[in-house]
Design goal:
The complex is a heterodimer of chains A (714) and B (96).
Chain A (H helix, E strand, L loop, with lengths): L3 E9 L5 H9 L3 E5 L6 E9 L2 E7 L11 H13 L3 E7 L3 H13 L4 E6 L1 H6 L6 H8 L2 E4 L8 H14 L11 H16 L9 H9 L3 H11 L3 H19 L3 H20 L9 H10 L5 H18 L2 H21 L4 H18 L2 H17 L1 H15 L7 H7 L3 H7 L6 H11 L8 H11 L4 H25 L10 E4 L7 H20 L1 H14 L11 H13 L5 H22 L1 H13 L6 H9 L6 H9 L8 H12 L2 H13 L4 H11 L1 H29 L1
Parallel strand pairs in A: 1-4, 1-5, 5-6, 6-7
Antiparallel strand pairs in A: 2-3, 3-4
Chain B lengths: L7 H14 L2 E2 L8 E7 L3 H9 L7 E7 L5 E5 L2 E5 L1 H4 L2 E5 L1
Antiparallel strand pairs in B: 1-6, 2-3, 2-6, 3-4, 4-5
């Protein structure tokens, strides 16, 4: 039925309600991906309407199509290169003058444009009226009124889209910049034509305008296209800019912006008597409290605390149910599948590995639910405002605080949460230091080691590790900012949108997307890594090369029980002890055990032996696995007093300094495989490798210094 | 000479006059007063950005809040923005 395909690009200012309209149009038929080569999110969706299949692309929210931010470049390039059949610009009708600025720029791109006047109810409620017909005439575009929060207007919008596509009727109004500027535009156009610069996809007038505005992207494109001829173009543009600056006393980009606003004001004067925006009293009142000089930070701290509780305390229950479910599944598989490699692969490798990762899903769902509420309500921008000064001191953005706090719970959602930072450098630095926020999975390791070596002051020791983590984060943020991520960080201007009550639909869609992405990762790449880890810890198999006759020992125990010399519990304990010892030997024989021995010399200066190295390697799967690996290595049978006997074994084998050092190393090296998979997804392979490399180097260096210096004193 | 306004006194007075009446940077703006933007001293990129956000020369704005030493809250063209001190220093303003 849907035989004709149309592509529609949805653009609009941030906070214009664009996403709500996108959700209304497409429902759950959405797909989230990235634009090729960049981390800007690309959302697409489809809707079938009257025999058309309409593909809708949700472009990033932008204020203009200058080349200021990655989002703007992405949106602009999409429109220029992909040539969508229609571009819809979502406009907040309660603030027309500001929102129409983007519309004037889209008009210049000469694409079939429809303006969606969102939040039309707010305008009506304030008793004002927009003469849509007249405004549409003046702008030369179609205008549809809608109320995104109530879902009204979607049908009319789709109807207009089809109308524009099928009639091919193009209204066109050219925006004029005044005589002086127009003369210079003409001059540049004629030079461009003379140089025969053929720039595929671009319109000469538009290029001339962008050259006058000194748009970096366009300058680079022209430079490439014109080769040696560029100097003539450049000369003309420079002389035009100088000429305009001297007669109009302002730089061309400001003059042209002024002309665009002038055009908008003129149109609004005719079609909308009140050009001023609708007042936002309620938002003002809320802001007086939430961004108050004195109350702002305590309120922020409270909200973050509540969010943390929501995500991790509430999330603990469903997470433990999931954990229980996987446990039951393991038991089921153990009972069904005969003992052997297949069972081991299923139970230890796949269910253990993937299950451990899937168990975090409830936390991730709750986290993104909380983030969506904070974002859609308008508080997130205030949080950044309140925290900016503190975070600025270490070279981060106010919003960085949120993923960093999340990192104390789990680093995986923290990486995903870093998306709230629009600036790439801010985002990458925040991600690169997030591992130093001790996640929940590291706590069992700290508890074990602090309990083993410093039982009297375990709490303080653990606290010191957390504290060192924060200090390292501050130091590394400064270092990264001064080296790899140097250069102008984006100057801080950010809109504080009016407070709104978020719509449940929007929040649920947002949460669903993230959770699904995580589960998909767990089912694919994390599954592969889990199997790889299992192989490392299983092969080569020891076969009959045990150092002792374990089978004989077990047989002996069985006989003792049968002759009544020991009870059945004693028998069980004996057998468990023997089996634990066997497991230890199997591990030592495996590839992981061998790698541990090979790497031992590298870790010797830190005071680690091969056993601790193997534990560290197993920590790549998930940090809490370190504890179970050490139990295996030290042949501790899993019978309840596990923790205490493991503590005793550790205390016997290592001095306290090495114990502390191991905690430091566990703190500093990169988080688990799920974390790295997410890192790669969010920041690319190169950054992930950098994260792995630099945290390993840092962990080694710090542990080296602590051990070598500590040895002198102890 | 002084009578013709050519002496140093006259120049001094003119300069004082100039300082008193004219420009501050946005970073010095205080809540409760209205100001007008005179000029933005950014590069082309920053200028374009600020213009798109409504920070246009000639525009009247007021400060609706400020965190100590941190960004300012500016109400301009019907929307509210947080703007860092560093950036605010690049915007020349005058009381309106």
């Amino acid at each position: 039925m849907a035989d004709k395909e149309i592509t529609v690009a949805l653009s609009g200012n941030p906070n214009s309600g664009k996403t709500t309209i996108f959700n209304n149009l497409t429902g759950l038929r959405q797909h989230v991906g990235n634009y090729p080569g960049v981390t800007v999110e690309k959302k697409t969706g489809t809707v079938d309407y009257k025999g058309y299949r309409i593909n809708i692309v949700d472009l990033p929210g932008i204020y203009s199509i200058t080349a200021y931010s990655l989002e703007e470049i992405v949106a602009r390039n999409y429109i220029i290169n992909e040539k969508p059949d229609v571009v819809i610009d979502v406009v907040d009708s309660s603030n027309l003058e500001r929102n129409l600025y983007l519309a004037t720029q889209l008009m210049e791109l000469e694409v079939p444009l429809i303006l969606a006047f969102n939040m039309a109810d707010i305008v009506k409620k304030s008793g004002k009226k927009i003469d849509i017909g007249l405004l549409s005439e003046l702008f030369g575009v179609f205008i549809v009124e809608m109320v995104g929060s109530r879902g009204s207007g979607s049908k009319e919008l789709l109807e207009t889209v089809i109308g524009v596509v099928s009639s091919k009727k193009e209204k066109k109004v050219e925006l004029k910049y005044g005589e002086e500027v127009e003369n210079e535009i003409e001059r540049i156009i004629s030079v461009l034509k003379k140089q025969k610069v053929s720039i595929f996809n671009f319109d000469a007038r538009w290029i001339a305008v962008k050259l006058l505005e000194q748009d970096r992207e366009i300058i680079d494109t022209i430079k490439k296209a014109s080769g040696p001829e560029y100097s003539k173009i450049d000369e003309t543009v420079r002389s035009s800019i100088n000429h305009l600056t001297s007669i109009l006393r302002d730089s061309p980009e400001v003059i042209m912006a002024d002309a665009r606003y002038g055009f908008i004001k003129g149109a609004l004067l005719e079609a909308y008597k009140e050009t001023g925006p609708v007042k936002l009293d309620r938002s003002e009142k809320i802001d007086r409290i939430l961004t108050n000089r004195i109350l702002g930070i305590p309120i922020f701290a409270l909200i973050i605390w509540l969010m943390f509780q929501f995500v991790f305390t509430l999330g603990k229950y469903p997470a433990s149910w999931l954990g229980l479910g996987f446990e039951k599944l393991s038991i089921l598989v153990t009972n069904v599948v005969p003992q052997g490699l297949l069972r081991s692969l299923l139970v230890d490798g796949i269910i253990g590995g993937v299950g451990g990762v899937i168990t975090f899903t409830p936390n991730i769902i709750l986290l993104f639910f909380a983030i969506a509420v904070l974002e859609d309500s308008g508080y997130m921008a205030r949080a950044a405002f309140v925290m900016d000064r503190v975070m600025h001191k270490i070279g981060l953005h106010g919003k960085s605080f949120i993923p960093l706090v999340i990192g104390f719970g789990c680093t995986v959602p923290a990486y995903m949460g870093s998306r709230i930072l629009e600036n790439k450098k801010d985002r990458l630095v925040t991600m690169h230091i997030n591992t130093f926020m001790s996640c929940g999975a590291r706590l069992p390791v700290y508890i074990l080691f602090a309990g083993a070596f410093f039982p009297a002051v375990a709490g303080n020791v653990i606290f010191s590790i957390y504290f060192i983590g924060i200090i390292m984060a501050v130091i590394m943020a400064k270092i990264l900012r001064a080296t790899r991520f140097r250069g102008e960080s984006d100057p801080f201007v950010m809109e504080l949108p009016a407070y709104r009550i978020p719509t449940l639909k929007g929040i649920l869609i947002h949460t669903w997307e993230r959770a699904w992405m995580y589960v998909k990762k767990a089912g694919t790449i994390i599954l592969a890594i889990a199997i790889l880890m299992w192989i490392l810890f299983t092969f080569p198999m020891i076969g009959n090369n045990y150092s002792k006759d374990y089978a004989g020992e077990i047989e002996e125990t069985n006989q003792l029980y049968q002759s009544g010399e020991i009870t059945s519990t004693e028998q069980d304990r004996e057998i468990a002890a023997v089996e634990a010892e066997m497991a230890g030997e199997r591990l030592a024989y495996s590839a992981a055990g061998r790698i541990g021995r090979i790497l031992e010399p590298v870790f010797k200066p830190l005071g680690f032996d091969w056993k601790l190295v193997v534990a560290t390697i197993s920590g790549v799967a998930a940090k809490e696995v370190i504890v179970s690996t050490l139990s295996t290595i030290y042949s501790i049978q899993g019978t309840g007093e596990e923790a205490d006997s493991l503590k005793a074994a550790l205390n016997e084998h290592y001095p306290p300094l090495v114990g502390y050092n191991f905690m430091l190393f566990t703190l500093l090296y990169f988080p688990c495989m799920a974390g790295m998979v997410m890192f790669r997804k969010e920041a690319g392979t190169k950054e992930m490798l950098f994260q792995i490399g630099y945290t390993l180097l840092l962990a080694w260096t710090v542990s080296f210094l602590v051990f070598q210096i500590g040895r002198i004193f102890i | 000479m002084r009578r013709f306004g050519l002496g140093s006194g006259g120049r001094e007075e003119r300069r004082r006059h100039f300082v008193k009446e004219d420009f501050y940077s946005m970073a010095e703006a205080v809540p409760g007063k209205k100001y007008r933007i005179i000029k933005i001293d950014g590069g082309c990129r920053l200028n374009s950005r600020l213009c798109a956000m409504g920070f246009m020369p000639g525009e009247v704005f007021n400060v609706s809040g400020a965190s100590m030493g941190g960004p300012l809250c500016i109400m301009v063209k019907g929307a509210k923005f947080a703007i860092g001190r560093g950036m605010a220093e690049k915007i020349q303003i005058r009381e309106a």
